[in-house]
Amino acid sequence: MRRLLLASLSLALVAPSHAGEPTPPGPPSLAAPVDHAIVYSDRARVFRAATVTLAGASLRATLVDLPGSVEAGSVQVRCSTAEVARVEVTRVRSALPRQRLAQQLLSQLEGVLDRRRALEGERRVLEAELGFIDALQPTSQLPRAEKEREGVAVHVEAWRKILTWSEGRAARIRARLLALGKERRKVEGELEPLRVKARELDLGAARDAVSRVVAELRGSPGRHRVLVSYLTRGASWLPAYELRYDPERRSVEASYYARVSQTSGEDWERASLRFSTGQPETLVEVPRLPVWTLGTASDFTPTPRARATPA
């Protein structure tokens, strides 16, 4: 039976870099997709599998970049064919595939919101102009008797031109307001699906630093399978039941299944899932009883004796 080598994790936790600072180049990265996961009531232990090729006696490689929901102290690296000499978990400014999608979605959201703000600003300007045009009426501030006495002249031709222009301008503004309403509804239709995707991708975590797992392996040259496991928040499951009644057979079939939800920031495509009602943060260990040795012997060897028969 091959001995399973588990590194004693000396986790080097480094403070996250400031935004805008370039991340120093590290060891080569490997592909480590999610292989399976154990889902608990409030978190999950995720297992990722990677293949490491050793060309010499040792190799230092980046195994995987993990989202911020991962508990860095829970990271474990195992390999059954090579020795895991050292494991480092550092916080770096990198972009996971899900974070890159979130950043692209954020850019689309900002573009649509800018269009909506531009339409809203144009609508307010046109409504103010329409109110000003509607207020243009040929009126005089003099009383009727005074106008008849002084013979106030009304410039009919000038007012005809003003009213013709104002009516034409008002008609064009109302037509534009109708078009703006249609464009606003179109923009709202584009905005709603983007908001749904934003809730799924968690845009708030798109700019967070990620946990980079770097391991140093020692062993014989060749290909070695490495398993990376860790606890992540944002995953849970609930039991669900379904009862089906067959009236012909007069039987009831009960189905029991799990309903899983996870917002950990990573994809679990084609990963097998197992479910547990335990608490992973609670360590259950058999207590060690103190030993009190009398004499020089540390081991007790029982000696059989003849059974005594009372007189």
Note down, in words, how this protein is organized:
The strands form 3 sheets. This protein has a 6-stranded mixed beta sheet with strand order 1-5-8-3-2-11, with no helix packed on it. Strands 4-7-6 form a 3-stranded antiparallel beta sheet, with no helix packed on it. By secondary structure, it is an alpha+beta fold. It is built from 3 helices and 11 strands, in the order ββββββαααβββββ. The longest helix has 46 residues, at 156-201. The chain has helices at residues 97-134, 144-150, 156-201; strands at 5-6, 34-39, 43-54, 58-66, 76-79, 83-92, 210-218, 222-233, 235-246, 251-262, 272-275. 29% of the residues lie in helices and 30% in strands. Helix 1 (97-134) runs antiparallel to helix 3. The radius of gyration is 38 Å and the shape is elongated.
Give a summary of the structure in a few sentences.
By secondary structure, the protein is an alpha+beta fold. The protein contains three helices and eleven strands; from the N terminus they run ββββββαααβββββ.
Strand content: 25-35%
General form: elongated
Query: What's the β-strand tally?
Result: 11
The radius of gyration computed from the alpha-carbon positions, rounded to a whole number of angstroms, is 38 Å
For the largest beta-sheet, the strand count, sense and barrel status come to:
6 strands, mixed
Label the structural class: alpha+beta
Report how far the terminal alpha carbons are from each other.
57 Å
Give the count of helical stretches. 3
Question: What is the element string, with H for helices and E for strands?
Answer: EEEEEEHHHEEEEE
Helix content: 25-40%
Poorly predicted runs are 1-26
Mean of all residue-level pLDDT scores? 77
Tell me the strand order in the biggest sheet: 1-5-8-3-2-11
